[in-house]
Amino acid sequence: MSKDRLELLQGTLDLMVLQTLTGMGPLHGYGIARRIEQVSGEEVLLNQGTIYASLVRLQQRGWISAEWGISENNRKAKFYAITRRGRSHLAHAAAYWRRLAGLMGRMFASPAEGAES
Amino acid sequence: MTDRLRAAWNRLLAMFRSAPLDADLETEIAAHLEAATAENLRRGLSREEARRQALVRFGRVAGAMEEHRDARGLPALEAFRQDLAYSFRTLGRERSLACIVVAVLALGMGANVAVFSMVNAILLRPLPFRNPNRLVWFAGNEGQGGLSDQTYTVAAFEEFRRHNRSFQDVTSYQTFFSSIQYKLKGGDAPLPVVGVQVAENFFPLLGVEPALGRPFTAEECRRGGRGAVLLSHQFWQRQFGGDPSIIGRTLDIDASPADISGPVSVVGVLPASFDFGSIFSPGMQVDFYVPAYMDFWRGWGNTLAVLGRLKPGISLGEAQAEASALFPQLKAAHRDWYSDYKSRLSSLQERVSGKLRRSLLVLWCAVGLILLIVCINVSNLLLARTISRGKEFAMRTALGAGRGRLVRQLLTESLVLSGAGALLGLAVAWGITFYFARQSQLALPMLSTVRVDAAAFAWTALIAAVAGCVFGLAPAWRVSGGNLHDTLKDGGAGMTQGNRHERLRSALVISEVALACVLLVGAGLLLRSFLHLLDVDLGFVPAHVAAIPIEINDGGKIERRGPVLQEILRRVRALPGIEAAGLTDMLPLDRNRSWGLVSKENLDDRSQPHGAFVYVVSPGYLEAMGMRLRAGRDLSWQDRADTQPVFVINQAGARREWPGQDPIGRPAYGAGRGEARVVGVIDDVRESSLEERASVQIYIPMTQFDPEGAELVVRSRLPISAVEPPVLATLRSLNPGQPRTQFRAIREIVDHAVSPRRFLVLLVSCFAGFGLLLASLGIYGVISYSVSRQSQEIGIRMALGASGARVRLAVMGQTLRLTLAGVVIGGIASFAVARAIGSLLFGTEPGDPLVFAATMCLLAVIAVSAGQVPARRASRIDPISVLRGL
Q1: Fewest beta carbons less than 10 Å away: which of A70, B16, B652, B824?
Q2: Per-residue pLDDT for B199 more than 70?
C-alpha cells in the first residue's frame, strides 16, 4: 500500500457505504467495497474487510437493511440496501460534510499566520 | 436518539447471538473472497494469484472479524463475560477452596446484613406514621423518675394543648394501661385482654387510619357516650379470624378500675403496620384501643403520656423553649397543680430508639470488623492461590495479556466469590432476622418489623462489591507487581519473591489477630458487664417465684377485702408444693407508679424531691418475693382500714427521710393517706432496671388502700405448669369471675429487663468467637504455607544436625511472633475501643485487666494450637528425601 493514500476519518466509511447504496441499489459487501475503491480512484486506504464492521453498525442503527440472496457467481451472499431512515440520515450528514468541507476550504484558502504556504 | 437506543439494544441482543452471527459473517466473507477471486480471474490472473490478491485486498480475516464483533456487540461486557466464564472454570477446578471462601463470606455477610436489618428497622427506617420526624415526645420532670413523674394530668395536658403555639396538635394516651385489667366476656371464662386508652385525636395525629371501619367519633370519646373499640390487626386475626363483618359487632368488655364496662361496639380495625407495643412499650402486645374519657381521669394524678405534632417551620428547640416557658405559667395560674411539669421534649424517634443507638452502633461496628477479618482471611487464601498460579499468569502475560486484563480477571474472580457469598449470606440473614423478629419477649422496639428488605438487599450488594474489591486487591496487586521473567524461569526458590509474599501474608495475619483481639476485648468487657449485672443484688429472689393476675371480688369495699384476701392466700398456701404466697398490685421491674414519701419533719422542706414508688401489697408478699426485712415488722392482717395507717419502706427511703436515725414508728406522709407510720424497713429492691440503684419505695397494705389490679405471687419448687391448674381452680372456686390468666415466672420479668443487654452480649460474643476462629485459620494457613515453602531448608538443617524439637520450636517461635505483633497492635486499639463503649459497661472498667489478660491468653493459646500442626509437620520432614529431591 502506498504512503500517499488517504487514512479514513472516523465515520466517513459509514457515509461512503450509505452513499454507494443510494446510488447503486442493493449490493453485497464486495460490491460495495469495489464501488468505493473505484469512486475514490484508488485513493482510499481500505482493507476490504473493514467494510463489514461498518455494515453491521449501519444495520444496527436501522439505516440499511440486509437480505440473503445469490451473487453473480452463484454464491449465497448478503445484499444490503439503504432504508428510508438511512436516506434521511445521509441527507443530514452530507449537508454537514459540505458545510465543514467548505469551511475548511475557506480556512486554508485565506493566508493565515503560521500556516505553511 | 432513537437510532442510538436501537443500536444499543441491537448490540445487547447481538451478545446473546454471537454463534449464528459469526457463522453469517464467515459465509459473507467467503462469498466476498470468492467474488474477488472471480474478478481477478476475469482480469487474467492465474487462479493462485487471483486468490492471493483477493486475500491481500481483504486484509486480515481474523482482524476483520474481531472488528465486526466489537462493532456489533459491547466489547467491555463481552470481556467481562469471558472473565466470568473463566472464573467459574478456574473456581470449579478448586472447588474445596471456593467452598471454604464462600462459606466464610456467607457467614460474615449474613451477620452483616442481619445486623443492618436490625439497625435499619430500629434506627434508620422512619416510624410508620405520617411525617414521623415532626412528632415530639414529652417527658415530664425532665425525664427523671418513674412513670408517674414523667406523665401529665388531664388538666396539664388540656391546658398545654389549648395554649401552645408550636404544635399543630397535642395528643395523649393513658400510660397506666397495664394497670387496667380488661376482660373479654362471652367465652367459658373471661379472657384477659390488653387494651390502651387513647385520646380522641391520637390516631389522626399520628396519621394512622383504620384499615377497616372508622376512627372514634367525638361522641364516643365523651364519658357516658356510646361505647366504642378499635381492634389491633393481630387481635382481629387471632380472635376473630380476620372476619370483616366484625365492624358493628358488640363486645362485652369488663374493665376495672377504668370507666369502661359493658357492651362496646367495634368501630374499626387498625392496619397491621400499626404496632403500639413495638413503639411505645417494647415487648407488649396490645389487643384493642378504647377512648380515654378525660372527665373520668380528671380526678387522677399524672397518668397521661403526651406527644405532639410540630407546626410546619417550628423546630424542636423552639417547641422546647415554649414548653419550658408555658408550663410554669400554667402552674402559676392553677394553684391546685402539684407539679410544674418541667418537660424535656425529644423527637419520638429519639424516645423510641435513642437509648439503643449506642448498642446498635457497637453491634454494627463489631459486625463490620467481622467482615474485615473475613476479607483479610479470604484475601490470604486467595493470595496463596495466586502465588501457586504465578506460572499461569506469567504464561498469559507472555501470550499478550495486558496487566490490566489480568487484574480485571482476578477482581472478577473475587467478585464472583463475594457474589456467591452474598447470596448465601442473604439466606443466613433471612434466617437470623426471621428468628429475632419472633422473639417477642425481647424488649427491643420495632423488633417485629425487622426483615431483609430492599434496603438490606442494597446493603448486601454494596458490601459484596466492597468486600470483593478489598480481598481481591492483594492478589491483584501481587500479580501486577510480579516479574514475568523470574516466574517463568521456574524460580520456585526465588527467595526475594517468596519473602515478599510472606511479608504481605504475615502483615495480613497480624492485622487479623489484632482485629480479633479488639473484638474479643469488646465482647469480654460486655460479657463481664452482663455477668456483673446478673450478680446484682436485686433485693428479691426471682428463682422459683411466679405471679398470676387475679381478680379480687370484694365488691370494691375495702372493709370486706381483708377476709377475702386472707381466704385466697390460706387456700393457695394449702396447695401441695406452695411454699409461700402473697399479693401485690405491681411487681418490681414490671410496670410501676410513683407518688411520694415524706417524713413529718421534712414536710415543709421543698428543697429535695420526695418521689417514691408505691406498691400495694398483702402480708406475706415480702416473704414470697424473698425481700429481706431489715428492721421492724411485715404488714399484718391487723392493719385494717379502721386502724393506724402503716407502711413498709426500703432503705433508700430511710436514708433519705431519716438519715442516721431509726425510722420505725416515725410518722410520714405518702400516697395521699394522711399521716401514716413506718413499721418496717426492707433492703433495697431494684424496681426500674438492674443497672440503676433503687429509688425510694413504699409498701402499703392492701387492706388499707385500693390496689391497681392484683397479682398473686407464689413461691414453689414445682414447675409452673404443675402449679397453675390447682391455683386457677382454687381461684375459680373462690371467684367464678376469675379470668383465664397465666403465670409469669419472675425470672422472666428479670430476663425481660436485661434482654437488650443479653442480646448485645450474645451477638458480640458470637462475632468475637467467629473472629477468633478466622484468626486461627489465618495463622494456620500462613504458618503451614511457610513450612511447606521452607521444607528444603528445614531438611538441610536437619541433615546438618538440627533436632526435630528445635525445628518445631523455630516454627512455634514464628507463630508466636505473628501473634504477639497482632496482640500488641490489637491491645492498643482495644484500649481506644473500650473507652468508646465505656457507657455501655456496667460495673466494669474499660481497662479491666482481667478481660485484657484473658484475651491475650486466649489468643496465645489459640495461636499455639494453630501453629502446632504445621510445627509437627516441619519436625517430621525427612532430610533424606529432601536431599534426594535437590
Answers
A1: B16
A2: yes
Q: Check whether B443 has a pLDDT greater than 80.
A: no
Q: What is the pLDDT of residues B182-198, one digit of tens each?
A: 888 877 777 888 888 99
The shortest CB-CB distance from A56 to any of B38, B61, B68 is to B68
Which residue in this structure is represented by grid cell 438492674? B690
Render the burial of B684-714: b for 16+ CB within 10 Å, e for the rest.
Answer: bbbbbebeeebbbbbbbbbbbbebbbbbbbb
Mutation site, A61, A67, A74, interface B, largest B CB count within 10 A: A61
Give the number of other Cβ atoms within 10 Å of residue B570's Cβ: 10
Question: What CA–CA distance (Å, rounded) separates B244 from B674?
Answer: 53
Distance from CA of A71 to the nearest CA of B (A): 8
Q: Which residue, among B2, B28, B56, B65, would best test binding to A if mutated, counting the most A CBs under 10 Å from its CB?
A: B28
Q: Contacts of residue A53 in chain B, CB cutoff 8 Å?
A: 64, 67-68, 70-72
Q: Which three cell numbers stand for residue A102?
A: 467548505
A60: chain B residues, CB-CB within 8 Å: 6-7, 10-11, 14, 72
Task: Provide the pLDDT for residue B494.
Answer: 46
Could you tell me if B855 and B516 are in contact, meaning their C-beta atoms sit under 8 angstroms apart?
A: no
For position B192, what pLDDT does the model report? 82
Decide: residue B96, CB within 10 A, 0-12 exposed, 13-18 middle, 19+ buried. Answer: exposed
- pTM of the predicted model, to two decimals? 0.76
CB distance from A104 to chain B under 8 Å? no
Is the CB of residue A73 less than 8 Å away from at least one CB of chain B? yes
Count, residues in chain B: 886
